[in-house]
Hints:
Strand order of the largest sheet: 1-2
Mean pLDDT: 81
Helix content: 25-40%
Bound molecules: zinc ion
Number of domains: 2
Distance between the termini: 84 Å
Low-confidence stretches: 116-128
Number of strands: 6
Number of helices: 6
Strand content: 5-15%
Amino acid sequence: MPAHKLSDIKVVCKGGVYNKSVIDRFWKYAEKGLTDDECWFWIGSIMQRGGYGQLNDRHKILKSHILSYEIHIGKIPDGLNVLHKCSISRCWNPKHLYAGTHKQNTADAIKAGTLHVFEVKKGTDNHNAKLTIEQVKIIKGSKPYSIKGLDKKFGVTKTCISRIRKGLSWKSVTIP
Ligand SMILES: [Zn+2]
């Protein structure tokens, strides 16, 4: 019988089976806080997108909070995500984790103020709705960096301003 390579050794956790090297590295970067209730921060590398703690397992990237959930709590129910009660993406404290839907996640993030919601005012998505020809002429003659000011001034979206500047809308209006 061939000798097992170190990478072949598996560890059975409550919610999944992992390579031993993954579990070993998890505990290297999973730093507990002073109390059971505070956030426990992942001190390994952090994903640029989402800010989650991450760990490489050969070609896969594992998220530390998901690993923590499977180590401490159990299998993630089908169709659910592992979410943070505390909204701190890099926190791996199992007490702060729960399984829920993406919709719940968004609602929690809004409640915690970590997700910015941009309200789109009705009517402004109609590019031509609110502008006068004079305003369109001003937009067409504007510099790229002034887009931000003009959208507020005329009560339309940045996309609207940008489309006009690129000549995609209000084609009939020309400037000298
Ligand atoms: Zn936390």
